[in-house]
Design goal:
Layout lengths: L2 H12 L4 E4 L4 E3 H18 L4 E4 L5 H13 L3 E3 L6 H10 L4 E4 L2 H8 L4 E6 L2 E7 L13 E7 L7 E6 H14 L7 E3 L7 H14 L2 E3 L8 E2 L3 E2 L1 H10 L4 E4 L1 H12 L10 E4 L6 H9 L4 E7 L4 E5 L12 E2 L3 E5 L4 E6 L17 E9 L5 E6 L4 E2 L5 E2 L1 H8 L5 E7 L7 E6 L7 H15 L10 E2 L19 H17 L8
Parallel strand pairs: 1-11, 3-4, 3-5, 10-11, 14-15, 15-16, 26-27
Antiparallel strand pairs: 1-2, 5-7, 6-7, 8-9, 12-13, 16-17, 17-18, 19-20, 20-21, 21-22, 23-24, 25-26
C-alpha cells in the first residue's frame, strides 16, 4: 500500500470526523471515506477485473473513492473523460484492454457498447453500474506495474495512453504536498476535471495525504460550461463560498477569475496557494493576479513525467518562470534548448517500447534554467515558426499574451514564412461590448507589449470555440494547430493576399 492510501487510513483513525471528500450531494468524513474505499476495493478484487475504466460524473466523491479503491485493489485505472467523443471512448476501451467500466452513465455505455452485462455497485450517495467487457485474444493487456493509464493528445486525432506506476504517482504527490505546504487546514476546490492527471493528483491525492478536504463539485457548479466555456462569476463564487485555500488553474480559468473580480465578484480571500499551468502563462497575467491579492504560482509538467515537474512556491517565486524543479526530478537543457527531464518518468506509451529507466525524457518544450535554478519556458519545439524576415516566433508565447485579455477566450497564431502574423481568435462575450471591437483593442494592447516580429496583424474570428468535440483542442486543453490551420487555411490565404493588411474578415 502506498503512502497516499496509508495516509487516508491513518487519518480515518486519528481524525475520523474530519471532512475528507465534499461534493454537491454527498460529504464523507475520513472514517466514512476509508470504509467506502475498503468496501469498493473488496468488490473490485472479487470481480476479477484486470483493467478498470472510470466514466463517472466529474467531479464527485464517488470518482475519488473508485480511483482510490482500484489503487488499493491493485487494479490499473483508466480515467475516461466525459468530454471524449464516442470514437475516442471506443479507442481507449480497446487500446487499454479495459474489461470493466464503472459508470453512472449506463445509457451512454449501452448505446456505445451494446447489451454488455452490468451489475449495480453501491457508491457514496449513488448507484454505479459495473459493465463487464469481453477480452479477446487480440486485446492488449497493460504491463505489470502500471497503476494508471492516462490519455494525452497525440499527433493524430486519437489520444495516446501514458502508463504510470504507483511509485511515480506517490513521488509526485509527496513533492507537491511539500512544495505547496499542504496541511489539514486546507480546503482544495477542484475546478479541473479529475480525469486530468494534474487535478487527480493535486485535487485528490495531495489533500488526502495531508489530511485536508478535497471539495469535488460538478464542473457546472464551478463555472465550466461544456468543454471550453467558462462562467467567470460562478467560478469566483464557488471559490469564495467554499472557502478555498488551494486550487489549480489553467491560464484561461485564471483570466476568467480576474475578469470576474474586475466586475465586482468577491475576492476568495481564503485562497493561499493557486497553481497555474497546463499551457503557456503570460507574465502579465501573473502580475495582474498578484496585484489584486491572488496567491498564484506558475508550474510546469507533463503526463510523461507523472504531472508536475517544476513549481514556484511561496518561498521561491519568480513570476515569468515555471519555478524550480521538484525534488523527484532532474532537468537538463539540450544543445538546441529542449527541456529534458529525468528521475520519475512514465513506463512508456501503451504499445511502444518502454523508455530506459535512467533516460531523460525529451519534452518537446524549449526553455532554460536561470542562475538560481528557475525553469523558464520558451515554447513548443515543433511549434516555433520562422517568419519572412528569418525571425523565430513562438506562437505559444504570443497566444498567452493575447488570451490574458478578457475579450479573447482562445487564440491560435500562424505566420510561417509570412511578413506578419495572423491569429484565429475565439472572442469572449463581454457585457455591453462589441466583440470585434473588443478583440481588436485587446490585440492592440498585446501588440504594445510584444516585439514587432511577434505582433498580430489582421485577425480571423473563429466560427466556433476550439474544443475536443470539434477536433480543434486536445483532451488536455492544448490547441490542435494542424487541425485549426486546415479548418481556416482558405481564409488565412485570402487574408495574406489582401493588399489592405488592416482589413478584418
Amino acid at each position: 500500500m502506498n503512502e497516499i492510501l496509508r495516509a487516508l487510513h491513518r487519518h480515518a483513525r486519528t481524525q475520523p470526523s474530519a471532512i475528507a471528500l465534499k461534493g454537491a450531494h454527498v460529504t464523507l468524513d475520513y472514517a466514512e471515506a476509508g470504509k467506502a474505499v475498503n468496501r469498493l476495493a473488496d468488490t473490485f478484487s472479487q470481480s476479477g477485473i484486470k483493467s478498470l475504466g472510470l466514466l463517472l460524473e466529474e467531479n464527485s466523491p464517488p470518482w475519488a473513492v473508485a480511483d482510490l479503491a482500484a489503487m488499493q485493489a491493485g487494479i490499473p485505472v483508466v480515467p475516461l473523460p466525459g468530454f471524449f467523443s464516442d470514437s475516442q471512448l471506443r479507442h481507449a476501451i480497446r487500446n487499454a484492454g479495459i474489461d470493466g467500466i464503472l459508470t453512472d452513465q449506463p445509457e451512454r455505455l449501452l448505446a456505445l457498447l451494446g447489451k454488455n452485462p452490468n451489475t449495480l455497485i453501491g457508491l457514496p450517495g449513488k448507484t454505479g453500474h459495473l459493465f463487464r467487457l469481453p477480452v479477446s485474444g487480440e486485446t492488449r493487456l497493460l504491463p505489470p506495474g502500471v497503476a494508471k493509464l492516462t490519455y494525452t493528445s497525440g499527433t493524430t486525432g486519437q489520444p495516446k495512453g501514458v502508463m504510470l506506476g504507483e511509485t511515480a504517482l506517490e513521488r509526485v504527490t509527496l513533492s507537491l504536498a511539500e512544495a505547496s505546504q499542504a496541511g489539514p487546514q486546507d480546503r482544495h476546490v477542484s475546478v479541473l476535471p479529475l480525469s486530468t492527471l494534474l487535478e487527480n493528483i493535486g485535487g485528490v491525492y495531495v489533500p488526502l495525504l495531508s489530511g485536508a478536504q478535497s471539495i469535488l463539485l460538478p464542473l457546472s457548479h464551478v463555472g465550466l460550461i461544456g468543454s471550453s466555456g467558462i462562467n467567470p462569476a460562478l467560478l469566483a463564487q464557488a471559490l469564495h463560498s467554499q472557502g478555498a485555500t488551494s486550487t489549480v488553474f489553467v491560464p484561461q480559468l485564471l483570466s476568467a477569475l480576474l475578469f470576474a473580480l474586475r466586475a465586482g465578484a468577491p475576492l476568495p480571500s481564503s485562497l493561499r496557494f493557486a497553481a497555474v499551468g497546463g499551457a503557456p502563462v503570460s507574465k502579465g497575467l501573473l502580475l495582474e493576479a498578484a496585484a489584486v491579492g491572488l496567491p498564484v504560482f506558475q508550474g510546469y509538467g507533463l503526463s510523461e513525467c507523472a504531472s508536475v515537474v517544476a513549481l514556484n512556491t511561496p518561498d521561491s517565486n519568480r513570476p515569468g518562470s515555471a519555478g524550480k524543479p521538484l525534488p523527484h526530478v532532474r532537468i537538463r537543457i539540450a544543445e538546441d534548448g529542449e527541456i529534458l527531464v529525468g528521475g520519475t518518468l512514465y513506463q512508456g506509451y501503451l504499445g511502444d517500447t518502454p523508455p530506459d529507466a535512467d533516460a531523460f525524457h525529451p519534452t518537446g518544450d524549449l526553455g532554460h534554467l536561470d542562475d538560481d535554478g528557475h525553469l523558464h519556458l520558451i515554447g513548443r519545439k515543433k511549434h516555433i515558426f520562422i517568419n519572412a524576415f528569418g525571425r523565430n516566433v513562438s506562437p505559444d508565447w504570443v497566444e498567452s499574451e493575447l488570451t490574458r485579455h478578457p475579450a479573447i477566450a482562445q487564440a491560435a497564431v500562424f505566420g510561417e514564412g509570412r511578413p506578419w502574423n495572423t491569429a484565429v481568435i475565439v472572442p469572449r462575450a463581454l457585457p455591453g461590448a462589441d466583440p470585434h471591437g473588443a478583440v481588436s483593442q485587446a490585440i492592440a494592447l498585446a501588440n504594445a507589449e510584444l516585439p514587432d516580429y511577434a505582433r498580430i496583424g489582421p485577425w480571423i474570428p473563429a466560427a466556433e470555440p476550439f474544443s475536443p468535440a470539434n477536433g480543434l483542442l486536445t483532451p488536455n486543453g492544448r490547441l490542435r494547430r494542424s487541425a485549426i490551420l486546415a479548418a481556416y487555411q482558405e481564409t488565412i490565404e485570402q487574408l495574406y493576399q489582401r493588399r489592405e493588411t488592416h482589413d478584418v474578415l
